[in-house]
Design brief:
Blueprint (H helix, E strand, L loop, with lengths): L6 H28 L6 E3 H14 L7 H21 L6 E3 H14 L1 H19 L8 H10 L4 H11 L9 H12 L7
Antiparallel strand pairs: 1-2
């Protein structure tokens, strides 16, 4: 006959289940951010779709210098993601590959993962910078909305991106925020 668990052991087990559920929720959200088309896989087309959406939102043509930079950045970001997560080499990242590959690297070194995203983020900031003074929180909210963030959350997140509250979002601010967003603690961490 199994011995009854102590109340302390039961509380630890409950906390562990809550942490696991929270971790799974966060991982699912990160995966959905990258899986732009909802196919259940992250692939090159997801990054291309993100680039197209940003350019369309700001009326920037793909053939312009800014448009080319966004597409080149999206491709570099995809190559970096595939390099760390596409274990089976099928040119797409499954949720399982994301969890075991990308999410582990995100957790272990979110700053390095943000560096993979830098060319894309830099190019998107340039597109969202309509007056040459830097991307504003309202324009960052537009980017977030076209990339799938709920409108009410996009405005709040965009305002938080302006860490120094100067009314503009710098590359360093967006990279720090991206690294923070991507750094998901595992339940056993």
């Amino acid at each position: 006959m199994p011995s009854p668990r102590s109340p302390a052991a039961a509380r630890r087990a409950a906390r562990s289940r809550c942490r696991s559920a929270e971790y799974e929720r966060k991982i699912a959200a990160r995966f959905a951010t990258f899986d732009q088309d909802g196919s259940g896989y992250i692939d090159r087309e997801d990054f291309s779709a993100a680039a197209k959406a940003v350019l369309a939102e700001f009326g920037t043509t793909a053939r312009s210098d800014k448009g080319q930079a966004v597409f080149a950045g999206a491709e570099a970001f995809w190559q970096g993601m595939a390099g760390i997560a596409d274990v089976d080499g099928d040119q797409r990242v499954s949720r399982e590959e994301f969890i075991t590959g990308a999410a582990k690297r995100l957790r272990d070194n979110p700053e390095r993962f943000a560096e993979i995203a830098r060319p894309f983020l830099r190019a998107v900031i340039a597109v969202a910078d309509e007056d040459g003074g830097g991307a504003t929180p309202p324009n960052a909210a537009r980017v977030l909305r076209v990339l799938g963030t709920a409108p009410e959350l996009a405005t709040e997140v965009a305002a938080a991106l302006d860490a120094d509250r100067d009314g503009r979002i710098s590359e360093d601010e967006i990279l720090a925020a991206f690294a923070g967003y991507c750094g998901v603690e595992a339940p056993d961490a």
